[in-house]
Amino acid sequence: MQPLLEAIKISHAFDYPLFSNISLLLYPKQSVAIVGVSGSGKSTLLHILATLLKPQSGVVKVFGQEIYQKDQKRLLKIRREKIGIVFQSHYLFKGFSAYENIEVASLLTKQPIDEELIERFGIAKVMQKRVTELSGGEQQRVSIARVLTKRPRIIFADEPTGNLDKKTATEVMDVVFDYIKEHNSALFLVTHDMQLARLCDSVYRLENEKLILL
Ligand SMILES: Nc1ncnc2c1ncn2[C@@H]1O[C@H](COP(=O)(O)OP(=O)(O)OP(=O)(O)O)[C@@H](O)[C@H]1O
Ligand SMILES: [Mg+2]
To answer: Is the CB of 18 under 6 A from ligand 1?
Structure first.
């Protein structure tokens, strides 16, 4: 089976080296969690794997294709159609309602809005509210619903449940796990919550510039 995502000997540094020569494979229906102290480079790694940041060295393949060899237009197409990113600070369109935010994803990718998903996320009753009127946890759930609406093959989620209580977090993540099983997709999750990380197929800690399998 071809991996959905392949990272080969990735290295990156900002003010100091974050990681060097790390490799990772992600197969359909598979979920991987990354933990590590603040500043260890988890979000940077996520951005590199999610088509947003070219690593200083190494190769990233999505569906067998080297993404950073592609021109911006092709890269954007892959990002738009195949990849879903839940950012650490959620980037919803502030002047829009929750529904309109999800509608944008639906229009861009020509995928229908899944009402059941919205129901399962417990956000049906706030769909007409403006983003600025939502609680932090509601915003977070709208961002995840928006990402799933695109029907991505790979979901990158950076601390997606940081604003949620344990029960809601588990419910939301159950929807995401069901999604990847149903759609042959994969999940790359960054979290500080070890209990949540343990729900993934494998857990790595980013430490001393390496990924350590826990
Ligand atoms: N665009 C950038 N320019 C310069 N330095 C950056 C940039 N992005 C991140 N850094 C630095 O790289 C380091 C790792 O940042 P990163 O956001 O990857 O950490 P993290 O593991 O996600 O931390 P947290 O758990 O706090 O989210 C930090 O020291 C940060 O200041
Ligand atoms: Mg981070």
So the answer is: yes
Domain with 23, as residue range(s), is 5-91+154-213
Burial 18-33 (b: 16+ CB within 10 A, else e): bbbebebebebbbbbb
CATH number, domain of 60, equals 3.40.50.300
Tokens (6 digits) for 201: 């197929």
Whole-number pLDDT of residue 132: 94
Within a domain: 117: no
Structure tokens at 169: 């977090």
Mind listing the pLDDT tens digit for each residue in 80-126?
999 999 998 878 999 999 999 999 999 999 999 999 999 999 999 99
Q: Is 42 a pocket residue for ligand 1 (Cβ < 6 Å)?
A: yes
Q: HSE on the CB side for 2, CA within 13 Å?
A: 7
Domain assignment present for residue 126? The answer is no
- pLDDT for the residue 91: 85
Output the CA 6–ligand 1 centroid distance in Å: 22
| Ligand number, closest to the Cα atom of 47 | 1
